[in-house]
Specification:
414 residues; mainly alpha; globular; ubiquitin-protein transferase activity
């Protein structure tokens, strides 16, 4: 109940444009419009006086955490000390208001500034003619790659600046467009970030992959990290992508990125949900696995294999040439057929091993979603700009909110 109450208070305070510290307990109320939110549904049967008393307790707890406790805590998690304060705080992060987390985070970011006013900001020069007309002939011509090349020789410490504030704030680097004279840094910097996000979510760059569930009209427009082995050059680009996430946080500029929840879970080092995350990312594979798990007899399994064989032009069983079969292979998110075990192309799915096959397909997809190699590079880049221990306090949704801002509202027509 407390976690649901914190989520509701976060939303209420955004609506009222105030912080939870300034919200009076008697201003906490629920109405019928809140029933649509499943996270708040558990609060509907709780007496309003009980909610207000509970909020007053959470409010006092958050004020104490913000003022006295969190500034003194070592937030870095270690697997060795599972009962450390950081580990316990990670388990209890659902009790901390988002505004409390942001306040503490901003203090740390301002305390970890490494480039002072005495040092000139790095400057990069971008050629707009490389992307004229919106058509990018080569990935090397993108703003993303142009910036990555020029900033590769700049120490990450020079990109760690204080939080942006004022009319013309200090950003991690200045941008100059070839043939253009721009006064001030804010407009060109924001345009650069907008263009880079547009490039990342297009075919111009291969770092992100459209969500496979889009084929079933689910999560259209969302992206995940492309799950494939990466070269050193691609690792450097992913590192720069992580740096851009940190730079945007320090600049307080929301990035127009639409990434699937599994990406943000990986970024804050949270485990994936075996059911929910697979269904969100690839509902077709999720349904495929469920069909094998729910098969009740051999006849039904044979009919299922026949249906799959007809769709994928699979072969016949070596034991019974007239009977179609499935083998221990599956298609990756990038469209390549891989063996799920050694010699999988020669191993037929049978009644005895169907559950093993279903687990192997599920495991393949979850490994692709975790994408440890790529996520490690992104986190390394992010960690060079902001302290990664700050992510201990944030949920995946809050990390997305801190990086990308609030999702735009769809206005009804007519």
């Amino acid at each position: 109940m407390d976690v649901a109450l914190v989520q509701y208070i976060n939303r209420l305070c955004r609506h009222l444009a105030i912080t939870p510290a300034r919200l009076h307990p008697h201003e906490v109320y629920l109405d019928t419009s809140d029933t649509a939110d499943p996270r708040v549904a558990s609060l509907l049967n709780v007496p309003v006086e009980s909610l207000r008393l509970r909020f007053a307790l959470l409010q006092s707890l958050n004020n104490t955490l913000e003022s006295f406790f969190l500034p003194l805590v070592e937030l870095r998690q270690t697997h060795t000390y599972q009962n450390s304060i950081a580990a316990l705080l990670c388990e209890a992060k659902g009790l901390i208001f988002y505004d409390t987390k942001v306040t503490v985070m901003n203090r740390v970011l301002n305390a970890t500034v490494q480039r002072t006013a005495d040092h000139a900001a790095p400057e990069i020069t971008l050629d707009p003619l490389e992307i004229v007309g919106g058509e990018i002939r080569s990935s090397e011509n993108t703003y993303f790659c142009q910036a990555a090349r020029q900033l590769s020789c700049v120490p990450s410490s020079q990109l760690c600046v204080k939080l942006a504030s004022g009319g013309d704030p200090t950003y991690a680097f200045n941008i100059r467009f070839t043939g253009e004279e721009v006064h001030g840094t804010s407009g060109s910097f924001r345009h650069f970030l907008w263009q880079v996000c547009k490039e990342l979510q297009s075919s111009a760059l291969s770092l992100l992959l459209p969500c496979p569930s889009a084929a079933a009209n689910r999560n259209k427009g969302k992206y995940i990290l492309t799950p494939c082995p990466i070269s050193y050059a691609e690792e450097q680009l992913l590192h720069f992508f992580g740096q851009l996430l940190g730079i945007a946080i320090r600049a307080d500029v929301p990035l127009p990125l639409d990434l699937l929840g599994s990406f943000w879970k990986g970024l804050v080092a949270e485990s994936l949900d075996l059911e929910q995350d697979l269904q969100e990312a690839d509902v077709l594979t999720y349904n495929y696995v469920k069909k094998f798990e729910n098969v009740s007899d051999e006849t039904e399994l044979e009919a299922l294999c026949a249906e799959i064989s007809s769709q994928h032009h699979s072969g016949e069983s070596p034991d019974s040439p007239s009977r179609p079969c499935c083998t221990f292979t599956y298609i990756t998110m990038t469209g390549e057929e891989v063996e799920l075990c050694q010699g999988g192309r020669n191993l037929t799915v049978s009644w005895e091993n169907k559950d093993v096959y279903a687990r192997a397909v599920r495991s393949l997809r979850l490994r692709e979603l975790q994408n440890v190699e790529c996520m490690t590079a992104v986190r390394a880049g992010l960690g060079s700009i902001i302290p990664l221990q700050l992510l201990t306090m944030l949920s995946p949704l809050e990390m997305e909110l801190r990086t990308c801002g609030f999702a735009p509202y769809s206005l009804p027509l007519g």
